[in-house]
Specification:
The complex is a heterotrimer of chains A (about 325), B (about 325) and C (about 325).
Chain A lengths: L1 E16 L4 E17 L3 E6 L5 H9 L6 E6 L2 E2 L12 H6 E4 L3 H4 L6 H12 L4 H14 L16 H14 L4 E5 L7 H18 L2 E6 L2 H7 L2 E6 L2 E7 H6 L4 H9 L8 H22 L10 E4 L2 E3 L7 H13 L1
Parallel strand pairs in A: 3-8, 3-9, 6-7, 7-8
Antiparallel strand pairs in A: 1-2, 1-4, 4-5, 9-10, 10-12, 11-12
Chain B lengths: L1 H28 L15 H11 L5 H13 L13 H36 L4 H15 L2 H15 L18 H38 L2 H8 L4 H13 L1 H5 L1 H8 L4 H6 L5 H10 L3 H29 L7
Chain C lengths: L5 E14 L2 E14 L3 E5 L6 H8 L8 E9 L2 E2 L5 H7 L4 E4 L13 H10 L6 H14 L5 H4 L9 H13 L5 E5 L7 H18 L2 E6 L2 H7 L2 E6 L2 E7 H6 L4 H8 L51 E5 L2 E4 L14
Helix pairs in contact in C: 3-4, 3-6, 4-6, 6-7
The chains are: A alpha/beta (about 325), B mainly alpha (about 325), C alpha/beta (about 325).
Chain lengths: ~325, ~325, ~325
């Protein structure tokens, strides 16, 4: 069941200049993105820095003004309303939470852990003091921290622990969707493993969904069911994890995938050759995959649960794809 | 860059109009007027009223304001009632004095603050750094008039090195070499006094910037190239530490003309600070209004100059 | 194949930082060699001491609060005894360094060309014209288009990948036999990372230099390194050729680390990633005796650990610290 839908979402930032400081041009940070979020699933949003992936997350949660398109929550228009105090949007605010890369700056250093985690509960539920405390302790246990953490302050925890506190707080309002923006990219490998495990465990327990924003494809591969690849503010390809990793169609996706370092030292020469082949292909073919303004084409259905942004008027990219598929099979 | 300059100058126009309205209004609400206490107490109050009427001060304020604006556009800022000379003439002579004094003060400020700040930063925590810090706290804390009096007493009366009164000797003919030399010589003591007072903040800023720059990654890169220590400082650290100082140039520019009342009074130096206070106490409207406007314009231009200078010295900042 | 010459020989190196009055070793008993024409990766998580090791080799630690024991031999010369003046002859000339953050590593107010040229000024007799020529040559070598224009530009005008190429050009300026790269691609996007790593490999093959690659990214190691040393809590716990390390890891820490890499799930596989229990001890609380990894694998019986574990060769070119690896198994799967 889908509960959140992005329809042709656009976030444009003005560039000002000239004598009267008027708007000279726009940065098309997000430029027409469609997405449907269903219950209990994890969506990976992958792209390089500057691709607009973080902006999508912020636009959903109301930290970035939406320029065009809609955000619909259970059929209700909530575009730019996430921060409204209006009763009508209360559920939306409760149900969509976000965790950031740097939890240090998103946890109030002057508050104790109990108050930090209880804050969303106080906004949305009428717990008694005892109920609230029990609930905080329960959440801390889920993310692997013990009870005596509640009287401590954020700086007394390590980076991995703080990130887990961020997860615990996001879960506190019992949300349906957690937008996780690079939640583990500042963490060491063994600590990352812990945070990812807790995120999966919470998902099983609460049946919630994740929008997992990351530049790290191996993490996304581990976490996500569906993946969207973003470039220049638009999706170049979207589909199930299997389709994206095993049958990528857009040249940009293929280039990105081939660049992931493989833990396979015995075959690394082959990886290198393959990667450089794809890179060369990207340089030669790029023009066919973007319109004359360098814009990504509209997504079109390619296969079941698999959409690709190919040139609708130019068959060369499609033929190429077809050839490759034959070769691949 | 020209676009920004033009835009900023255009924005200045409404700012100045609003400023002039406020100043004009406030000046006229000050109790009393130039005639209060100025004229012979035996004069008939009715005569005074006639004078006021003739000067147009009984007209409604807006009418007075637009009459004044009309005159300003013809270059006429009115006449000082206290001194009976055109405001422009009065301010012109005072401004030249203040400007000279300001330039000499600024020179001393930087001559002292640059080496102190840079070396205190480079050798921070050393004995030199501690002495500089004590110096900067003292110079920050000492009241202007106390330092000025100490200077006058010590260098003027005890040692007799410097004359202590006036901006130029009245016995010399204007335009001669001796005249200019005397003028310069008389600037040194008040200029040095003003300069010392301005050093504290520059020293602190520079010292902190140097200490901060020392830990930057690009300094580590420079070290990894094998750049000798002296060059690390001169080419990398100092260059970056100067940026905030360079941007304060606009502020200095606007403070040059303001003058310091205390220094001007104590050294009997006819400058703008002194003029400002005198004209307020004597309710010399036309002088007060013109001075406030002048200060306003200079402050706005000063901040524009700062931005331009910063864009010249810091390649990351571009104004277009 | 001709035998490779040893460029750098580090013996029993200790690097200690002063906290209040005591020195605490961030690098403890590290011995390793770097040969020409090889990439030696030093892998570890934060707090492992890998960056401290790099800083010590190039002599950039704070001399007032750091204590160094042991030897760093470069062509028979012990670098640990050099004063700043002598070290400056080595730095940039014999050892080049590449840092993690390419924006922060470049002076924001100095043109690119000048920053590269600086390396040449203090180590060569080239005149201004020759230096300019060499700078352009270097920019070509690191794959920068339009070098004539770039030398007049400032760091903020270039992309992250371009900036990292500049940082590499600076390190290469005097063709140093040794290059130390500290997390050179961590701040970069994955496609740019691949290009930079290829570039470093190409350069290394061209110049026969030895590269020490410091990283936390095992993928980068697997793609680039010839030999790998794994560091934990200031010590090297395992050292092996790259293929051996990934196919036949021995030390419990290496094995745990490899197990916590996120991966696609096999059919029916438990989706839990391996988590190493506990946390890396802080410098002041680091146990100085016994096996430093012991606390993090508490299910292994005490008898399995050595009193004073040493790095020992268990097969040609494969060294492991202590004997605990012989008794190690993952919790829940009896050995």
């Amino acid at each position: 069941m889908s509960f959140l839908e992005l329809k042709d979402l656009k976030v444009h930032f003005p560039i000002r200049g000239g004598i009267f400081n008027t708007i000279q041009d726009w940065v098309y940070a997000v430029d027409g993105v469609d997405m449907v979020i269903e219950e209990g699933k994890t969506y990976g949003l992958v792209g390089e820095s500057g691709s607009g992936k973080t902006t999508i997350g912020k636009a959903i949660i109301g930290l970035e003004e939406v320029t065009g398109g809609d955000v619909e929550y259970e059929g209700v228009q909530v575009t730019n309303k996430a921060r409204s105090r209006n009763e009508q949007y209360r559920n939306y605010n409760k149900d969509i939470q976000m965790i950031f890369q740097d939890s240090t700056s998103s946890l109030n250093p002057k508050k104790r852990i109990r108050d930090i985690i209880a804050e969303p509960m106080r906004n949305y539920f009428d717990y008694t003091d005892k109920e609230e405390k029990d609930e905080v302790i329960r959440l801390l246990e889920i993310v692997g921290l013990n009870e005596d953490a509640i009287y401590r302050y954020p700086h007394e925890f390590s980076g991995g622990q703080r990130q887990r506190l961020g997860v615990a707080r996001a879960v506190a309002s019992n949300p349906k969707l957690i937008i996780a923006d690079e939640p583990t990219s500042a963490l060491d490998l063994s600590v990352q493993a812990q945070v990812l495990n807790f995120m999966k465990q919470i998902q099983k327990e609460y049946g919630l969904s994740y929008l997992f924003i990351s530049h790290d494809l191996s993490v996304v591969k581990h976490m996500a069911d569906d993946i969207a690849i973003m470039h220049r503010g638009r999706f170049v390809e979207r589909g199930s994890k299997d389709k994206i990793f095993n049958n990528p169609q857009h040249i940009y996706t293929r280039r990105l995938l081939s660049a992931i370092p493989q833990i396979d030292p015995l075959n690394r020469e082959e990886h290198k050759i393959e990667r450089q082949k794809v890179e060369q292909e990207y340089q030669e073919q790029e023009i066919h995959y973007y319109d004359e303004n360098g814009r990504v084409y509209d997504l079109e259905s390619f296969d079941e649960n698999h959409w690709v942004a190919l040139n609708p008027n130019d068959s060369s990219s499609k033929t190429l794809v077809a050839d490759q598929e034959k070769g691949g099979n | 860059m020209w676009k920004t300059v033009v835009r900023r100058l255009l924005v200045m126009i409404p700012q100045i109009i609003i400023l002039s309205m406020i100043v004009f209004t406030v000046a006229h609400f000050m109790p009393g007027d130039p005639f209060t206490g100025q004229l012979d107490p035996n004069i008939d109050p009715q005569q005074l009223d006639a004078l006021r009427e003739a000067a147009g001060w009984n007209d409604p304020l807006p009418i007075q304001y637009f009459r004044w604006v009309g005159n300003v556009f013809q270059g006429d800022f009115g006449k000082s009632y206290a001194q009976q000379v055109p405001v422009t003439t009065l301010i012109g002579s005072r401004a030249a004095n203040s400007l000279r004094l300001g330039l000499v003060s600024t020179f001393f400020t930087y001559a002292i603050a640059l080496p102190f700040g840079l070396f205190a930063g480079r050798y921070n925590e050393s004995w030199f750094d501690r002495i500089v810090m004590v110096y900067s706290y003292v110079s920050f804390a000492i009241p202007t008039f106390v330092l000025a009096l100490i200077m006058v007493y010590f260098f003027g009366y005890r040692l007799g090195w410097f004359p202590t009164r006036g901006s130029v000797s009245s016995s010399l003919t204007a335009g001669t070499g001796a005249y200019y030399w005397d003028m310069f010589y008389r600037l040194l003591l008040p200029g040095f006094t003003g300069g010392v007072l301005g050093t504290a903040s520059t020293i602190q800023t520079l010292r902190n910037e140097v200490i901060d720059a020392k830990t930057q990654d690009y300094v580590r890169t420079a070290r990894s190239k094998g750049v000798p220590e002296g060059k690390i400082y001169s080419k990398h650290i100092f260059r970056n530490a100067f940026l905030p100082i360079a941007s304060s140039i606009g502020f200095i520019f606007s403070s040059l003309l303001n003058g310091s009342v205390f220094i001007e009074r104590i050294f009997a130096f006819n400058g703008m600070g002194d003029l400002f206070i005198t004209s307020i106490t004597s309710r010399d409207y036309s002088v007060v209004i013109t001075l406030v406007l002048l200060y306003g314009v200079i402050a706005i231009i000063g901040s524009l100059v700062s931005d331009i200078v910063l864009s010249l010295v810091d390649p990351r900042i571009r104004i277009d | 194949m001709a035998t490779k010459e040893t460029l750098l020989e580090i013996n029993n190196l200790e690097v200690g930082f002063r906290f209040s009055d005591a020195y605490h070793n961030a690098v403890d008993d590290v011995s390793i060699t770097l040969k020409e024409n090889e990439i030696l990766a030093i892998v570890g998580e934060s707090g492992s001491g890998k960056s401290t090791l790099a800083t010590a080799i190039i002599g950039l630690h704070d001399p007032n609060n750091t204590q160094i024991k042991g030897e760093i031999l470069y062509k028979g010369l012990d670098l640990t005894n050099l004063n700043t003046k002598l070290y400056n002859r080595i730095r940039g000339n014999d050892i080049g360094m590449i840092f993690q953050d390419p924006l922060g590593s470049l002076n924001p107010v100095m043109p690119i060309g000048k920053q590269i040229e600086e390396s040449l000024i203090y180590h060569t007799d080239l005149n201004e014209k020759q230096r300019r020529q060499r700078v352009l040559e270097l920019l070509n070598q690191v794959g920068i288009p339009n070098p004539e224009r770039i030398i007049k530009q400032y760091p903020h005008e270039l992309s992250g990948g371009m900036r990292q190429r500049i940082v590499i050009a600076i390190a290469l300026a005097n063709k140093p036999p040794i290059i130390i790269a500290d997390e050179p691609t961590t701040a970069l996007d994955v496609t740019i990372q691949a290009q930079i790593l290829d570039l470093m490999k190409d350069i290394q093959e061209e110049t026969n230099s030895g590269i020490i690659l410091i990283t936390h990214d095992l993928g980068v190691v697997a793609e680039t390194a010839d030999r790998v040393a794994v560091m934990y809590a200031g010590q090297i716990v395992e050292e092996a050729p790259v293929d051996v390390l990934f196919t036949d890891p021995k030390h419990p820490y290496t094995r745990s680390l490899l197990n916590s890499i996120p991966h696609e799930l096999e059919e029916g596989e438990d989706d839990e990633l391996h988590v190493i229990q506990g946390t890396v001890p802080s410098l002041q609380n680091l146990p100085r005796t016994g096996d430093r990894f012991k606390d993090r694998i508490p299910w292994i019986p005490d008898e399995a650990f050595d009193e004073n574990p040493q790095l020992e060769e268990i097969a040609p070119n494969h060294k492991v610290r202590g004997n605990s690896w012989k008794h190690f198994y993952f919790e829940g799967e009896e050995d």
